[in-house]
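INFO  loader      accepted 1 record
INFO  loader      residues=615
INFO  predictor   begin
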Amino acid sequence: MAPLTIFAGANSSGKSTVIQSMLLTAQTLQSSVSSKHVVLNGHIVRLGAFNDIVSNGHEDSLVRIGFSLRPSNRESDYSFFAGSGSIRFHRHMHEFSSMECAYSFSTRGNSQEREKFQLQPKIEDSLVRATRAEGSSVEDFEISFKRSEKTNDSRIVSLNLSDRSLSDAERASLDYELVKTPAGSARRFPNVKGKYVGVWLNHFLPTKLSFVYDEVDERCQFLLRILLAPEEFRYFALSSIETYEHLNDFSDDLRKILLPSFEMVKGESENQRRMEKFAELLHALKTDTLIAFLSAYIEKINGLHPQVRRILKQSIAEKTDEIEKTVREKMSSDYNISFVPLMEPGDEICNQVQQFFSRKLRYLGPLRDEPKSVYPLAGAIDPKDVGFRGEHTAAVLDLNKNTRVEFVASKHFRTGATATKKGTVSLLVAVLDWLKYLGVVDDVETVDRGKLGHELRVMTPETESLHDLTHVGVGVSQVLPILVLSLLAEPGSTLIFEQPELHLNPRVQTRLADFFVSLNLLGKQCIVETHSEYIINRLRYRAVLSEGKEVAENVIIYFVEKQGGHSRYSPIKINKYGVIDNWPKGFFDESEETSASILKAAMEKRKKDSAKKNV
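INFO  predictor   done
INFO  writer      dumping C-alpha cells
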C-alpha cells in the first residue's frame, strides 16, 4: 500500500475484496463483544455467512487476513503509534519500526458447530509481531497461537485441572495452544513453577495468557519463604499478612507466642504500631531461633493443607533447600489456572492495533445520503464521524467549523506544480477553499435547528443566494463528506473511499485527484476504489509536473481482473514522466479504442460520401 493506493478494474473483478478485509478487521475490533472472534455482519459491512466469503465457496477452507502497520515518513507523526498515553508509552513504542498481525478463521467442528460457526467463525490461528527499529535497545516481539486439535475436555484432563472449578473464560482459553510465547513472560512468576497453556482473546488479539501451576506447591513455597526468611518478613508483615488467608490465624498465634509482654497501644495507630514492633522483632531473630519457635506451634496454623502441615513439621529444622526438595518430592498436586496479562510491550502493541482500526481508519462508502433540506441530528458518538454514507456531514461540519485543521491550499494546484506548503485554518475555510476549486459551490453555511437537526445551504456558481441541497443536485452531497472526513482526520490516518467519482462530472473527478495528493502531503494515506480514468490521468499529469519523483513514488495502482475464477492484482506504477510502462490490456483502454473506432468509422464514411459524389 502506497500513500495513495488505487484499485481499478471491471465490475465483480474483486476490487472490493482487499477493502472489505480491512473493514471486516475494523468492524471486529470496534465491537464491544470481545468474545466474537470475527464480526461478519455489523455496523460497517454485512458480509453474510462464512460460505459467502470463503474463496470459491470451499467451506472446508479458512480465510486468512494479515496486515503490517508502519510509521509514516513524517518525523512528528508515527502513524499507528500516535494516540493517548504517557511519555514512556510513546518512547517505548517508537523503538519498533513495524507491527504485523495475521489471523485465520474457519467453521471447523462437528456438524452442529459448523452451522453455528457460519455466522460466528472461530479463530484458527493468530500472530502478533513487532520488529525493532535500527539502533533500538528493545528486542523483537512475537506471540502466536493456534486452535488446539484436542477437545477442550481432553486438555483439561491432560493438565490435571478440576473441571468443576473452571469458569467459562478459563475453559475458552484452553481452546488455543501457544506456539510462541513472548520472551520475558516467565518474569511474571519468578518464584512459581508452572507453564503457559492458553490464551484469552479480545476478538483475534491476545490479551492474557493462561498459566497453570500447582496450587499446593505454590502455597507451601510461599509459606516457606515467609517462615524461613525473617529478613523478608518486614514487607509481608506490613502488607500481605493481614490479607493472605493462610497467614491470618498464623499471625495471631505467633504474636501470642513471641510477644507475651507486648504492651497494647490504644488509639488509631494501634494496629500500625503493633505491626511495626512485630516486624522489628522478627527481623532481629536468627533463623534458628525462629525455626525453634515455629516447630512447636506449626499445628496451630489454621487452614493449612494437611500434607503441607506434615511436611513442614517433619522438615522444619532442615535447611531451606532441603525443605523445598522434600516438598516437591512428597507432596501431591492440586493444579489451578490463572490469567496473566500480556507483559509490555505486547499489551501496548495489541492496544495500538486496536486503536488504529478504531480511531485512525476512516471509511466512506459509494452511496451517499440523499440531499435533504434539514439533516436529522447525528447519532454518532464520535463528533468527527460523518457516517459511512455521509449522513452526519452537516452536523459534523457545524460542530467543527471553527476547529483548526492542517491543509494544503488549492491555489498551489492551480499553478501547475505540486507544492508541499501547508497551512492551518478553520475547517470551514479549508472545506470552502476546496469546494471552490472543485467548482461545486462558492459558499456554504450550516445552521443548528435544534431538535429538527442541522440545515446545510450552499451557493453554486450559477446562483446568487444560498439554497439547500435539494435544489442544487447530488454533486455537493457526494463530495462534501469526502472533504470534511479527510480534513478532520488526524495525520497517520488511513482513509478509504469507494467510487468517490459517483455523480461527479469529469472536471470535478479530475480535481478530486489533486485533493487526494494534498492529503498525502499531510501524512494521510488514501485507498481509493474507482472506475474513473479522469482520476488516473490526473495523477499521471501531477507526476509529470512534480519536480522529482514525489508523486510517482507515492502512487500505486492495482488493476484487478478475473482469471480462472480467481482475482489477479497487477501493480501499475506511474513514472516521473507520467508514463505507465506496463499498461495491461483492459486497463482504461476503452476510450482509446472508442476514439480509434470513431476515427476509423469517420474515414470509412468519408470514403463512401466521396464515392457517392463521384457517381
